Records
---
Amino acid sequence: MKKTSLLLFLFVLCIGFAQTEDEKQFKTIYDMALTEGKAYHWLNHLSNQIGGRLSGSVQAQQAVEYTKSQLDSLGLDRVWLQPVMVPKWVRGAPEFAYIETKPGLTTNVPICALGGSVATPGIGLKAEVIEVQGIEDLAKLGREKIDGKIVFYNRPMDPTLISTFQSYSGCVDQRYSGAAEAAKYGATGVIVRSMSLRLDDYPHTGAMSYGDTPIEQRIPAAAISTNGAELLSTTLKLNPNIKFFFRQNCRQYPDVESYNVIGEIRGSEHPEEIMIVGGHLDSWDLGDGSHDDGAGCVQSMEVLHLFKKIGYKPKRTLRVVLFMNEENGLRGGNKYAEVAELKNEKHVFALESDAGGFTPRGFSFDCDDANFEQILGWTALFEPYLIHMFVRGGSGADISPLKDQRLVLSGLRPDSQRYFDHHHAENDTFEHVNKRELELGAATMASLVYLIDKYGTVRPSKVKG
């Protein structure tokens, strides 16, 4: 009995000691991020010296060169570029649109072409408008009421959902597939309400797809600001015979070569086990991509910088991956997973930051029950830093192609209430990122990586069943 009690005492003592060591490591990480971090400086350069980094653009290449040079300066074991072919879509001259209530009486409204859209005719496109609340309304109306008109998708994001990402998911289909579906009914173009909960004059772009629609049948698609959408909807109710005019000059070019940017600290004990942190280096072109996803890139770079600064040598190989072409193709994420499979690499953990540089709240995890239970056991360590959300769910688009390797996937989850005010819009700019919030996010990511590295993941062979 005495022996059992002694063993229990020693076990509790060891657990308490380990907890104390982890708490000390957390404080070291957070203190370093808040006093000697580089994330904000890196983001300043990406945003203000380079700007929007549309896939295939000169700015995207400049971002590749800049981030590689910064990773080179950290003294990592290896830094390299991974080639990937990406689409090249160019917006062209600024778009222009107005509502015509009667000949000669017009009101200008802010629009922007959706990424991947075809251009209007050179002189623009003018037609009557039919308003719908979603793709499902098209079949109810039929070709007779849609043919020759501009379809106006006006389903807003649901303001009653606390998760703004859930609200976004509930209406983004009209942006992505709206043109392809409207073309089936003879529409000449589509105008889509911007994916934002705020009423303002910023149109929000984003990817759209024509699916298998033949090139000659593709119709132009643009986003209208939320204020513009409210005005158009109200005007239509007063006079259903108004016309809408818009002109855009976008163009799709052949694919070009770009790169994922990768930096690595080789593991000291288990170098064959790979952990990655990352974000996507490309952005849309209207703003400078500070929240989406410059913040995620510099936070991911910061994880490796923090480990170097505090002298922590990971047991497992740690990589930062700055993916190219998340916004309109996911080519970078697919290429990384493809090469990893060809090399038979063993990834155990992947963490992505692609939800803005706002105050971190926690993480979402795509993993099995055993790994999630282990992670939940660490929550007390995060509570002093106000990190409280540990949920099952999605991780990140760029790391999702790695899922077949049965690793633990995770996404940083910042406060999301302001994210869609800036998402894909002209006001996604550096001044809207708070330095301290950005640094706290990087420290939170580094702390989770530290725990995964120290305790490992629960491999399938260890799971009972």
---
Amino acid sequence: MRNAKIIASGMFVPEKIVPNSYFNELLGENVSDWLEENVEIHERRWCSDDDSTADLCTNAANDALKNANLNADELDLIIVATDTPEYISPSTSTVVQHRIDAKNAGTFDLNSACAGFVTALDTGAKYIRADKKYKHVMVIGAYAMSKHLNMEDKNTVSLFADGAAAFILKAEESEEQGFLAGNLKTQGQFADWMGIFAGGTKFQINPDSLGKKLNKLQFVKRFPSDLNPTIWSEMIKELCDEIGVNPKDINHFFISQLNIRALQQTMDLLDLDMSRTPTIMHTYGYTGSACIPMAFHLTNKEGKIKKDDLVLFVGSGGGLSFAASVFKM
């Protein structure tokens, strides 16, 4: 059976390191203790004024190509998952395609907020399964949310960070390895609870509808604390049932990393140890669409992901959008 296998990954983060102490000075109060005790973020990376989402993507893409020992002109498709695009239009993926000289690759962007990378991974794998023209597909998750932070809003400014990571999927004839299953869910009733509400027709019709800083990230309402763990654990169990395994058979879980408590609750619901879900928010903050592939890349770089391991990805983002997929390495 023709299937999509993860053959390489790559990653890039900006040089600028922002420690928690920066926000103590910025906000005039001690937020560092809360960050370290409740979300376990100690520092994060932010873009400089000259850095952009396309820069992050390009560097991550080149790193993945190097690790795959692949030339850019061997790529057939590039999918960029981001909700902080280079432009509203055209797509960020077109910029990346030109910069890395992937002259044979088609492109498109995908936005399901922070569930974007797993959604794009599911999409790329199914392109390979469905159409023999696609032999190598690059999937990039990127986040430059520092560009959209309200520096006076203590609820958002200290959590979010920047980075990008890329996977390369390869078409192989295999019934045992590669993409096994995927699932998408949406709870659209939460669409206006969190987001960047500028752009498109909304901004033109009523620019004061959500305040004067519509191009900045806003938490409008507080989400139920058990929402992510409940849906993540349900999606994990559904995928495991689909492929005929138990959650205990999954070797690694890569989950959205905004709040470590949500990851701990998810593992508790699955009756599993936290050692199965690598965390990177301590050093990199919350990097949205990039956090899941970044965590995978760093774990794989440490040699912890072995041949035949079952790897499950599950993410969520504003909208609310949820995505999950499982691969056998």
